[in-house]
Amino acid sequence: MTLLSTKNMSVRLGGHTALRNVDFSIASGEIVTIVGPNGSGKSTLLKALIGAVKPTQGSLERRPGLRIGYVPQKLHIDPTLPISVRRFLSLPKKNSDAEINAALARVGASDLLSKQMFALSGGQFQRTLLARALLEKPDIFVLDEPTTGLDQPGSAALYNLIEELRHETGAAVLMVSHELHVVMSASDRVICLNGHVCCHGTPDVVASAPEYRALFGTGTQGALALYRHEHNHSHDGETHAEHSHV
Ligand SMILES: Nc1ncnc2c1ncn2[C@@H]1O[C@H](COP(=O)(O)OP(=O)(O)OP(=O)(O)O)[C@@H](O)[C@H]1O
Q1: What φ, ψ does residue 43 adopt, rounded to 5°?
Q2: Is 148 in the pocket of ligand 1 (CB under 6 A)?
Q3: Which pLDDT tens digit goes with each residue over 36-79?
């Protein structure tokens, strides 16, 4: 079942066209990852999908009653306004202590309940954000670079946790990631953005698409090496990876 979809969607922000003519959809249980250079509109796409920015053109559909667990790319916590993890997890919606404890336990962060938000490490902060998303009982997690600031083991652990949560809850996962090697192994589909959708498809298809190579070259942290495989088809002259594979 389709949870979120757009047709020919464009978004202008402060006179700048951040996204143009984007066709997108995600179905129940899918893991879809968005890749693209800085400023290519990845965060804007997520914000449009969750309803935080309005499309200036085209259509956007959300399944009625869709529950979204959103983790933003940046969340500034003012250290002069102390707020505990327990309080943070009750905003904007009140949650019971039992629900909060269960969510924190599920993300492996039970010990953080009484800590101050500004005092959390990068990994603790990201887990707390994920706990907050989990409290929404989401049909879809929308995660904007959920491993920001984490070291490699920390980020691998967080991706494992996301995968487990998807498995347990059946929720779809839509995320932005710069960690292409992870993207390549963990996603059902990858969308490569550069103001518009450059190419999309299964990870191996995107990795071999000329548009993707033009943006990321071959120095993709092993992504291409990981997916170097025998082709029994040709990409010659292919301008849209999706045509032959999706
Ligand atoms: N409020 C705004 N007003 C004007 N321009 C904006 C606004 N927000 C974003 N932009 C511009 O829109 C473009 C897309 O921004 P966006 O944050 O979606 O990119 P991104 O792909 O998520 O980038 P990054 O990888 O650096 O996080 C950028 O050129 C950005 O400068």
Answers
A1: -65, -40
A2: no
A3: 999 999 999 999 999 999 999 999 999 999 999 999 988 888 87
pTM of the model: 0.86
Residue 10 in any domain: the answer is: yes
Nearest CA to ligand 1 atom 30: 39
Identify the CATH number of the domain in which residue 149 sits.
3.40.50.300
With a CB cutoff of 8 Å and minimum separation 6, the contacts of 238 are: 209, 210, 244
38 lines ligand 1 (CB under 6 A): yes
Range of the domain at 21: 2-67+138-217
Structural domains of the chain, count: 2
Given a contact cutoff of 8 angstroms between Cβ atoms, the answer to whether 11 and 17 are in contact is yes
Burial of 143 (0-12, 13-18, 19+ CB in 10 A): buried
